[in-house]
Amino acid sequence: MSKQTMGKDDNGTFHPGKGKPSGVNKEEGLGFVSTPPEKLDEYLEMTEKYTVGEDELDPSVRMRHPNRNTSKNENNFKGKENKDESNKSLNQTFTEERTTVEPEELPGILTKEVFSELANYKNSCTISIFLGVHPAGVEVNEHIDPVNFKNQLQEAARRLGEKGKDQGFIESLLKPGFDLIRNFDFWTNMSPGLAVFIAEGYFKYIKMPVPPAEQLIVIEPTFYVTPLISIMTCKEYFYLLVISKQCAKLFKADAWGMEKVDVQLPQSIEEVKRISGLDATTFRSGANGSRGPRYSQEGVYHGTGGGNPDGKDNLLVYFEAVDDALWDQLLNKENAPLLLAGVEYEIPIYRQACDYHNVWPDALTGNRERQEIHQLYKEAKECMKPYFEQNKKKALDLYLNNSANSKTTSIVDEVVPAAYYSQISHLFVAKGAHIWGTFDEMNNKLELHDSPDQDGEHLIDNTVVKTLANGGEVYLLEKEEMPADSPVAAILRF
């Protein structure tokens, strides 16, 4: 250990050496700088954005070489502060002014207008992201979905980098998405599927009522919209009547949900008797089988007087009153099917009392008075599945009946051009199918690519959009449902 020497003055007095020991006024520790509290959120956001996992740098981040001179052409040297030159043109840095894009939610059930807006949107670079998410469960508490979405954004950033896009452009494009990751309310109020559409100055999303067929990222000049076919509005709807001795409730349902209908219905035979002033043996009669007037009108019901009728007679009178009320308030101008739900022995009694012409042949049996509406709808929709699939069945039958002539085709080289030239009346697409390439409409020239990396377009998506724009019908089918062993098939108009 070296000794510290002291100098001696002319008088022979020793003095300590000049300067301070190296440890004076320094804090002990490992040398780490603490994080300012006001910067914590910013640092966490940067960590999420530029890392994969806990400590691995995302591959899409471009790194400078450690020996690169970042101060090139600047007038700096040891002992002199860097100061701006009077001529700012020498070292001026131009920063592009970026406008803040707020994420916008589109309706979960698409109208043709909203679908057309997305389908016809064009830009030099658009990103379409589809992924399944979790409306509830442990996955929500463990933040599985925002982490997955972050991974998709990072993958999009990587692909954009491979396409030669500027890092600043990529960050600006994806910033609304990375901001959305930290929106806790967004991820705790989710539907089974999420579709996100990103372009410069454009960020819109759809919480899909059904999950997409696959998780997917598509980057091309137009948005990828084929998976949205499954959530477009449909015309089909039906009514559900929950009926019992002490209950009558009517619901209206379609392919996406169900709600209670505000109609005034009697809730028991006692209420019918009290309103009509009749005894329990009365029944409705109409001349020549026609519908009688309302149960509350005088002279509508006829019977044998007092007595103690059995339960079936009581039910019949009560159900006739319910049927009359439904007819007067709603069903007289309807043609939608009516699905019945009730205890098994009560269903045939209501069918006997009902004069509505479109009662669904199947029924939901069991006590449904207090069943939760979500579960009730789930069972009702399954029961009505043939009703919602009737158009698809007719289209498939039409294809099979014409499969031996030139009005059908499942050859990709024929289907794609036919869509551009308004020839397709019915298009069948296998879920998750992808065909990449280009089509020159002017010269009727089709070129197929092996992958999306060859600067082509999603030809199936273009075919879907063109078919719908020209008034055709599109059906997304499971592979085993397809009328031919091909990702696409079509019925031609000519």
Q: What is the compact description of this entry?
A:
This protein is an alpha+beta fold. Helix content is 29%, strand content 22%.
**Topology-level CATH name of the largest domain:** Nucleotidyltransferase, domain 5
Compute the number of structural domains.
3
Based on CA atoms alone, the radius of gyration comes out at: 36 Å
Ranges where pLDDT stays below 50 over 5 or more residues in a row are 26-32, 74-97, 279-283, 285-290, 292-309
What is the architecture of the largest domain at the second tier of CATH?
A: 2-Layer Sandwich
Global mean pLDDT: 83
Number of strands: 23
Helix count equals: 14
Explain the layout of strands and helices.
Layout: E1 7-8, E2 14-15, H1 40-50, E3 51-52, E4 56-57, E5 104-106, H2 112-119, E6 122-132, H3 138-141, H4 144-162, H5 167-181, H6 184-188, E7 193-199, E8 202-208, E9 216-222, E10 237-244, E11 247-254, E12 258-260, H7 269-276, E13 283-284, E14 301-302, H8 311-329, E15 338-342, H9 346-353, E16 359-365, H10 373-383, H11 385-388, H12 390-401, E17 408-409, H13 412-420, E18 424-430, E19 436-440, E20 445-449, E21 457-458, H14 459-469, E22 473-477, E23 488-492
Parallel strand pairs: 5-8, 10-15, 15-16, 18-22
Antiparallel strand pairs: 1-2, 3-4, 6-7, 6-9, 7-8, 10-11, 11-12, 13-14, 17-23, 18-23, 19-20, 19-21
Describe the protein's architecture and organization:
This protein is α+β, with helices and mostly antiparallel strands. It folds into three domains: 104-231, eRF1 domain 1 (Translation, Eukaryotic Peptide Chain Release Factor Subunit 1, Chain A); 237-387, Nucleotidyltransferase, domain 5 (2-Layer Sandwich), CATH 3.30.420; 391-492, 60s Ribosomal Protein L30, Chain: A. It contains 14 helices and 23 strands. The strands form seven sheets. Strands 5-8-7-6-9 form a five-stranded mixed β-sheet, with helices on both faces. Strands 12-11-10-15-16 form a five-stranded mixed β-sheet. Strand 7 (193-199) and strand 8 form a beta hairpin. Helix 4 (144-162) packs antiparallel against helix 5 (167-181), helix 8 crosses helix 9 (346-353) and helix 13 crosses helix 14 (459-469). It is flat. The model is unreliable at 26-32, 74-97, 279-283, 285-290 and 292-309 (pLDDT under 50).
